[in-house]
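Supplementary Data S3. Sequence and structure tokens for construct A.
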Amino acid sequence: MRYNALQILKQGLTGHKGWKPAWRKAEPKPEYDIIIVGGGGHGLATAYYLAKQFEQKRIAVVEKGWIGGGNVGRNTTIIRSNYMLHENEGFYEFSLKLWENQEQDFNYNSMVSQRGIINLFHSDPQRDAYVRRGNAMALNGADPVLLDQDALRKKCPFLNFDNARFPIQGGLWQPRGGTVRHDAVAWGYARGADKRGVDIIENCEVTGFLIDQGVCSGVETTRGTIKAKKIGVAVAGSSSRVMAMAGMRLPMESHVLQAFVSEGLKPVIPGVITYGAGHFYVSQSDKGGLVFGGDIDGYNSYAQRGNLPVVEDVCEGGVSLMPMIGKARVLRMWGGIMDMSMDGSPIIDKTHVNGLYFNGGWCYGGFKATPASGYCFAQLIATDAPHETAKAMRMDRFSRGLMIDEKGQGAQPNLH
């Protein structure tokens, strides 16, 4: 069933009784050509592009929980490509271009809203750094706009310009950035993959890999053994635990990143705003709630919840930036498990085990990378050749001294 205006009209006139499930509840088969471990955004996007773009057959996605229950449904929904390092900027610009055509591509309303993103700066050196970042963006075909204080006042008059501890001098604006409905991304990719014959198997946790003489031939799961010629792992914060089953120790740690939603307010925030003097970023949902977040909790954890010191720190940053929200009530909060790599950048690569591929280490950038991550991982699995924008994201870059350290924090996962 394709979704369109005529279908909505038809279903409305017939009591909405003809809608079909978005995807099948597939049962695992004994063997596939390709298995994707992880039914989050990256895993589903990989399966979708494997089937659509690279015309692969007999594909399965195995997910330990339900579709949309992991990090793809636990984030602040921001998309952007305002990076500085060439290896990152090219990749995320590719991802943003895929976002721009996503709804037409898989015939699903993922609510892509390109309202823009503004990174504020508060000092001359920070302005100079953003000028440099903007130049790097322009070289990769992105759309940087440097705003002085007067231009920023016109766009965001509610910011604390006059009484701030860290005076706002301007911002780097990317008009094509924005937000996307995170759940709809998972549902859209799941529906698109299912339409092309991919088996999406929920409540099927991987408990081991079938590896013999350096070759991976399948997975052990809570629903039995499933064999495959190729296996791709895209499990976000569970990467270390899952890959340990294959005898691999990854250069990454798992940390909790909290996000928050306030009560509904009248429309006030035009797009996404990030604080330059603290770690705080905010947008406003279609329901009016402020969606915001900040730093990771700073300690290793696999719990999908956070702690109060970070809540306090994030709210302090928000009130410092916008005192007007001081009386707004926080309705809910949640935590996503971030797989923080040593240099803050991702890994998309083959492993030393034949037939086993890995996708992880996304840190804060996982959601915005979803389309490009899936596309590049699908190309790697289908052809054994990396996509042009992901050539630098190899696992051995740490031993070769070719880290992609966007924040300049060095080998400190808890700081990225």
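Construct B, processed identically:
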Amino acid sequence: MRRIGIMSLLLITVCVSSNAQRLHLFNDSIRNIVDRNTIVVMDFVERYFNGLRSLKGTSVETKLADDKVYFRKGKWTDIYQLNDTLPVSFSKMERYFEISWLKSDVPFLTFVFPAQYDLIVGKSQKEIQNGLRNDILSASSYEYKPLPFDTANIKALDDKLYVKCSQHIGVESLNNARYFIKTDEEYYPVYDDSITEYSAANLFHGLISNTDYRMHIEQSIYGMTTTSYDITLSQWLKYCSLNGLKTYFAVEEEREDGILAIIIAQNDVFFYNHLLSVVLPKGFVNNPKSVLKVKLTPYIPTHNIKNLYKQQTENNKRKQWQ
């Protein structure tokens, strides 16, 4: 089923009776056709509006100001007019979301709020980071499907090798390039022990069928602490796909025991990034029991990612990974 993202304008009519005790604004029939990021926003709006109804007097205005949210059209008391039979539109404006409820095809209430992940999920930074492992594991049942491949903008590297790339972050080497070999007019993802850099990029872009590699994670936690756990590459790829994360890959160092890669998994809806330093051991292509060692810094705001990436690469050059 095609999922509808929040990045484009979406007009929805919900046709189920309202609950008088609690606002339920988005029915399951709507949730089934939108992507996960949109569902997260829907959950936030319902939770936030129900929370406003429990506040009294000027404390509502104070909370709205503290959270940097506002009603561009209408006023907060108009939420009492809402029900799940009204058409509603979603749109994204730079770093803000805007949701409008319509009557006679005209917005009567427009709610604007920042694309701030901790606000939207209703958790502190520490709670969010502590919950990442469970979020990754919970994606295990998700049916992951790699993005369809097309030959548009594909470029030849030599007689057989080709590259497809459309975006990069900070530096050109940190990009979403995928690599292919052409045989009998057909393109196949590169996965060869003699071309480990390209093979590693394809592996983390989800182009390779063997995704049972174990990833040993050392994850930083808010407050200068760390936690360690093991997942599979398949679980990581499913988590990224489910949450709409875009992967950018760069090789920082080729070493005798393998390669050191930097990976950024970016959510451009909520403006956060996961930064991974990954050691892929020598011979990983032909050894599915290889362990990928990962240092993970999660939920970095997009405006901080360039500085942290620079700091990470400088640290990698100063000391040998263990």
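The CA atoms of residues 293 and 322 lie 9 Å apart. The first helix runs from residue 28 to 31.
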